[in-house]
Design goal:
This protein is an alpha+beta fold and 1018 residues long. 59% of the residues lie in helices and 11% in strands. It is built from 43 helices and 20 strands. Strands 1, 2, 3, 4, 5, 6, 7, 8, 9 and 10 form a ten-stranded mixed beta sheet that branches. α34 runs antiparallel to α35. The protein is globular, with a radius of gyration of 36 Å. It starts with 9 loop residues before the first strand and ends in a 5-residue tail after the last helix.
């Protein structure tokens, strides 16, 4: 990698000029190697002799580091510090460090002259080159460096200790054993150590994925069908060479693994020939490796230093039959048995290489007559020299053979095999959003608490399977999710979704392969975000404006950027959000802040007209530029905009940033009021997501409002606290708080706050079963809204006229005024759809469907509920999902879809349990009881209704208690328990009279007449 941009020279301590290159954050593996008892080795010796002794040993150490692409950062008197993954990033830096350590330890073991201790650790460091006229230092700083040094000190002579972080970065190729723990300090977390026993230059291959259990194959069925067809053609003698092209992690190995699992592959002998970027001392050369892979697969020969004679004889004979005598001799030599044939002895190396390639192709063709061959060449972007020539020969030589040569390669890696035009190339694209959702649902499960996290993982990973897998692994490691595959739920509330170290190395190696100019442009563009406005980029460009177009063209050509907008101004988008994250993470925090400031300065000179998301961008960049007044102001503004669009997660993020910005501002009365508003705003956007509060910010907001004598803000916080208690089933407490909020408001406050308070109280009274009072409060709210703002949005409660009508409709239906209820709600739906607010539309449709269900018009309820499910899933309105899914399941079951209906009812009950929402559960359970009764599952019917009655009683839901008593009356009657049936029927009748619930009263009368006709009322 070219050196990063140089920083201005500064005076060094010795009076010379120190030249410092830009410091960068890097994910690396650090290796410390120390010569044991070096003092005794030089004791009593002449200085020159001592120097030569140590230099000879140090040369062994540095040679091993350089062999595997590492950088010797420091050479000490009796040891070295080496870095793998810097200055140039390496995707397999951890494996390379382990291989180098193994070579050093073996050299020491093989020698009687010295011993070494080695420590290895992986993680993030800050790296910088510092040069003076006296010395040059590649400086790396971070906890990782100190852990590696501690591990080296702890290691036994001629042994290697490595950290858990290093082990995690090498999925295959290491053999280790636990070696205890160590601490950097008394307060630091313990570091788990492992002793390295063996390291091999290996990578996960299609064969590993073939044997893996529980893997999910998503979204590659068309490509699999093409490859299966190629196998069928090869079996008929029409062989081919096909190349799978796709970026790292796109799923090439997963697809080839699935192909090997297919019925078509059962008739083939599979030859796995993986390619590696690492070459160890003593490894066979390219053609020898190909010959050994063929022998191991076809002959089943043991994978040892020498092959058995039968395998050598069989392959030699096959090559000779199809390619001639010298092709057979070439194969013999490739398999480790020197040829004594005089013609072979007379060939020069170039001629021997030609015959070796001919021999391999000939043997493959001949062996395929006995049994078809599938030859898998993985990672051909790392092939070289003779391997490339062999692939060219295979591409031409298998057309009339029973052979399919399947090659995988990356499009963005320099070097490797150049695919001929005659070879069929199959490009793999990222998974579609629905396919990524299927993948996440499979591994995470369906907990509503994970919906926002799934959306962030999907957006960050952008359909690349490896990124999805590694992101999930990181989430589990950090505690962001807890559970088991398929049944995870949200874990630590404060856990960050950090970038997987494995993915970091993969993408950083691509970025570091760029020339210095485009590389720095990419890193500065990452400060702006995943979408990069050209005008903003000019403000932070590290190169002259005249050179910027060429650099951007290079980045587009290399697959880093794509043009997303031309007018009114050019906008580029990072092809992968993770590339933006890695590029941004490479900049030090010290460098990021002024860059954010420059972007912020440019944004303030722009208008909303040509930059629609300007407010959100200013909020983001002001926060990271530490312009606290602007960060607070625009964070609140961006949060409100997101809230109005039902983007609740984004709204919460902006509000939280504004709250953090307030911590840096003086505690004036106005700032205290802003803090109260934010403490109210954050819970407000958590509510529709079904997320509970961490701590009690609303109580803090109430206390603070009382402290400054702000009755309006006290009422707002109290009203929202009532909403949380309402949702989580504390109905009586919610009603009391809601009344208190309205009392404190008095004649003060905005009309918006008064309407919100009346709506919430009315909705609570509906759930309580106090329908006449609920109707009174809701009518007050509706009249005020119609008078002052019939189409206005009111925060979470959105379009007031629509929401009040939704509650009114349900209230009217329970009171038996069915036609009026439907008319009111259709009017509300028209308003909600006209305004286009998702929360309002969903709420009205759900309540209108419930009205139809009360009236037993299930066919009319179905389309409303299906639309509501779509809206709640798209906008992640988890608060509505349990009742919406349950109502849809009941309506489907009552219109003939019993199996699907039961599945949805069970899913809705599970969601309500996960979200800890008790209010919808009695109604769902009563629906389940009703359906169980129809299918003569009497015990289930009784159990569901009894459970519903218990939950409704605990929550104080009087109306649901009435319906639960009626469900129990029906269920007990069906089992012949007539006394219990009559008791519950009487209770239901009493509640229907007390609450004026006409539909319930009608059902009770009808049921009592049926019992009387059967002589069962005594």
């Amino acid at each position: 990698m070219p050196a990063p941009n140089a920083m201005p020279a500064a005076d060094s301590p010795d009076g010379g000029a120190a030249r410092r290159n830009s410091a960068e954050r890097k994910v690396v593996t650090v290796l410390f190697a120390d010569i044991v008892e070096s003092s005794s080795m030089v004791s009593g010796r002449d200085p020159e002799e001592a120097d030569q002794t140590l230099l000879t040993i140090l040369q062994i150490l540095t040679d091993a580091v350089e062999r595997y692409g590492g950088t010797v950062a420091q050479v000490l008197g009796d040891g070295i510090m080496a870095v793998f993954g810097a200055p140039s990033a390496l995707e397999d830096h951890a494996l390379r460090a382990c291989l180098a350590a193994q070579d050093i330890a073996r050299s020491a073991i093989d020698s009687d002259e010295f011993k070494v201790r080695i420590g290895i650790s992986s993680g993030e460091v800050v790296a910088q080159i510092i040069e003076t006229g006296v010395w040059t230092d590649y400086r790396t700083v971070g906890e990782t460096v100190h852990i590696a040094a501690k591990l080296q000190q702890r290691a036994h002579p001629n042994s290697v200790l490595l950290s858990h972080e290093t082990l995690d970065l090498v999925p295959k190729g290491l053999t280790v054993r636990p070696a205890g723990t160590l601490r950097l300090s008394a307060t630091a977390e313990p570091v788990t150590a492992f002793a390295l026993e063996a390291a091999r230059a290996m990578r996960l291959t299609a064969m590993d994925l073939l044997s893996a259990e529980g893997t999910l194959f998503v979204g590659r069925q068309p490509e699999l069908a093409v490859l299966a067809g190629a196998l069928r053609q090869a079996q008929r003698g029409r062989g081919a060479c096909t190349v799978l092209i796709g970026e790292a992690g796109i799923g090439k190995s997963r697809l080839t693994g699935e192909l090997m699992r297919s019925p078509e592959a059962a008739a083939f002998t599979i030859v796995i020939w993986p390619q590696f970027p690492i070459r160890r001392l003593g490894d066979p050369d390219d053609l020898e490796a190909a010959a050994r892979c063929l022998a191991l697969s076809v002959c089943g020969s043991a994978d040892g230093p020498t092959l058995d004679g039968l395998a050598v004889a069989r392959l030699t004979a096959a090559a000779a039959r199809n390619g001639g005598e010298l092709a057979g001799e070439a194969m013999r030599e490739l398999l480790g048995q020197p040829s004594v044939h005089p013609l072979w002895q007379g060939l020069d190396p170039a001629q021997k290489a030609d015959f070796s390639i001919e021999g391999l192709v000939a043997a493959i063709r001949e062996l395929s007559v006995e049994r078809p061959l599938l030859i898998l060449v993985e990672d051909a972007h790392w092939t070289r020299g003779l391997t490339n020539r062999l692939l060219d020969a295979l591409a031409e030589g298998v057309e009339d053979a029973h052979v399919l040569v399947l090659v995988t390669s990356r499009p963005d890696t320099p070097g490797g095999w150049t695919v001929p035009d005659s070879v069929h190339a199959l490009a793999l694209e990222p998974l579609e959003p629905l396919q990524a959702d299927e993948f996440l649902d499979h591994w995470l499960g369906h907990s509503p608490s994970l919906a926002d996290l799934k959306a962030r993982v999907a957006a960050q990973s952008q359909g690349v399977p490896l990124y999805l897998e590694e992101s999930l692994r990181t989430l589990e490691t950090t505690g962001a999710i807890v559970g088991s595959p398929g049944r995870y739920s949200l874990g630590k509330a404060d856990a960050r979704m950090s970038l997987p170290a494995t993915v970091h190395g993969l993408l950083a190696s691509r970025i570091d392969a760029l020339d210095p100019g485009p590389r720095r442009v990419l890193m500065h563009a990452a400060v702006i975000g995943t979408s990069v406005d050209l005008g903003l980029l000019r403000a932070v460009s590290p190169i002259p404006a005249a050179d910027l177009p060429a650099a951007l063209a290079r980045l587009e050509q290399s697959g880093f950027f794509a043009r997303s907008r031309l007018l009114p101004n050019l906008e580029l988008t990072f092809r992968h959000a993770l590339v933006q994250e890695v590029a941004y993470a490479t900049l030090t925090k010290r460098e990021r802040q002024p860059l954010h400031g420059r972007v912020l300065h440019a944004l303030r000179r722009r208008s909303d007209r040509n930059l629609p998301n300007r407010a959100e961008l200013i909020a983001h960049h002001a926060f990271y530029a530490e312009d606290w007044p602007l960060a607070c102001a625009y964070g609140r503004r961006a949060g409100r905009r997101a809230e109005m669009r039902c983007k609740h997660f984004d709204a919460g993020r902006f509000y939280e940033q504004a709250l953090k910005a307030l911590d840096h501002l003086p505690d004036t009365r106005r700032n205290i009021q802003r803090r109260i508003d934010l403490w109210v705003g954050i819970p407000l956007v958590l509510l529709p997501q079904g997320r509970q509060l961490a701590g009690d910010p609303l109580e803090e907001a109430r206390d603070m409002a009382l402290g400054i004598g702000d009755r309006i803000r006290y009422a707002r916080a109290t009203s929202l606290k009532a909403s949380f208690q309402w949702v989580y089933g504390v109905l009586d407490g919610a009603i009391a708080l809601s009344r208190s909020a309205l009392d404190h408001l008095g004649n003060q406050g905005t009309m918006e706050l008064r309407i919100q308070g009346l709506m919430r109280l009315g909705g609570m009274l509906v759930d309580k079963g106090h329908f006449p009072e609920a109707q009174e409060k809701l009518e007050q709210a509706r009249s005020l809204a119609l008078l002052h703002a019939p189409r206005a949005r009111f925060g979470l409660t959105a379009v007031a006229v629509a929401i009040t009508a939704a509650y009114q409709g349900r209230c009217l239906a329970e009171l038996g005024r069915d036609e009026e209820a439907v008319r009111v709600m259709h009017h509300a739906l028209d308003i909600a759809e006209e305004v286009g607010h998702a929360f309002s539309v969903s709420s009205v449709k759900v309540h209108l469907a419930l009205v139809h269900i009360i009236g037993e018009r299930f066919t009319e309820a179905l389309p409303l509920l299906k639309d509501a499910v779509t809206i709640t899933e798209a906008t992640r309105l988890h608060i509505f999902q349990p009742i919406t899914l349950g109502a849809l399941g009941y309506a489907i079951a009552r219109t003939g879809g019993a199996t699907e209906g039961a599945r949805l009812l069970n899913a809705s009950l599970e969601q309500a349990h996960i979200l800890n929402h008790s209010l919808p559960r009695p109604r769902i359970l009563n629906w389940m009881s009703d359906l169980a009764l129809e299918t003569a599952q009497h015990d289930t019917a009784i159990g569901c209704a009894a459970n519903a009655l218990g939950i409704a009683t605990d929550a104080g839901q009087l109306s649901e208690q009435g319906w639960s008593h009626f469900a129990l009356a029906q269920a007990f009657s069906a089992t012949g328990q007539h006394r219990e049936a009559m008791e519950h029927l009487a209770a239901a009748e009493t509640m229907s009279r007390q609450l004026s619930m006409m539909p319930l009263a009608d059902r009770c009368r009808t049921f009592r007449r049926c019992l009387a006709a059967a002589g069962l009322t005594r």
